[in-house]
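pls read this protein:
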Amino acid sequence: MEITIKSADNPDGRCAYLMNIYTVPAMRRRGIGKAVVEWLMQEAEERGAGKIYLEASESAYPLYKELGFCEMDGYLKYTKEAG
């Protein structure tokens, strides 16, 4: 599904939305989730998405912040320029 949200900082409106990314507890803290999100970020960029949106659990915030996402009205957003 392609979402288009045009704005001054994303004029063509192409964006991605990540959802339901989960690592089972026994496999956490091994870089698996980070590797998956980095791959998804790369895919989004290759497909022309200027922004990536997601909602995150409190425990996942540090990972997304480390990857360059910033808070936006209850969401985290990644833009290549800020990352």
The chain has a mean pLDDT of 85. The CA atoms of residues 39 and 48 lie 14 Å apart. The helical segments are 32-46, 61-66. The chain has two helices and five strands.
